[in-house]
Amino acid sequence: MPGAFRYEGYAIVSADGMIADADGRMPPALLNSADQRFLSEALDRAAVLVHGRHSHEGHRNSPRRRRVVLSRRVGAIAADPEAPHSVLWNPAGAPFAAACEALGIAGGTAAILGGPEVYEQFLELGYARFLLSRAAELTIPGGLPIFGRSRPPVDQALAAAGLTPAEPRWLDRQAGVALTVWRKPAG
After folding, report:
1. Which of these, 49, 98, 141, 178, is most buried using a 10 Å CB contact count?
2. Nearest to residue 87, comparing CAs of 73, 72, 99, 75?
3. Comparing C-alpha atoms, which of 119, 152, 86 is closest to residue 7?
4. Where are the domains of the chain?
5. pTM score of the predicted model
6. Mean local confidence (pLDDT), 112-120
7. How far is CA 35 from the centre of its chain?
């Protein structure tokens, strides 16, 4: 992984691997309080959050978190006029480390929160881990896959990127939400 950053993906998907409906909106049925608690605690430990302009997390500490927002509206890097702890970043115009440098961040964990283009960008850069929650009781026919329609299903895409899954563990057994941590093997 280039520089001093460790890329960690975070997502919750439906049983059929979707992160949103056909219109790109996350259905309320995909939100789970145990998963949200897990995510919020993980994001508190991250140096920077990375997401697209339509993806965000609405947790208690959200306003204080530093973030890089992928955007084609800028040539390289620009201050985000809507959020004081954020920069807009166009990967075609500057490396990720430069976007983080604009926030005063030289390294640490970059928590990748989506959407599909963002997840795909960091799939190519190389995840160290991908923490994938799955709502086993929910399907979203015609929904939006995590890595977009141009990639294989999430499990196949992560395996093809060299990550290996651990055994799933329940975050909320009653709701059927389990977490699988995919890791890059040590070496």
Report:
1. 49
2. 99
3. 119
4. 5-183
5. 0.93
6. 93
7. 14
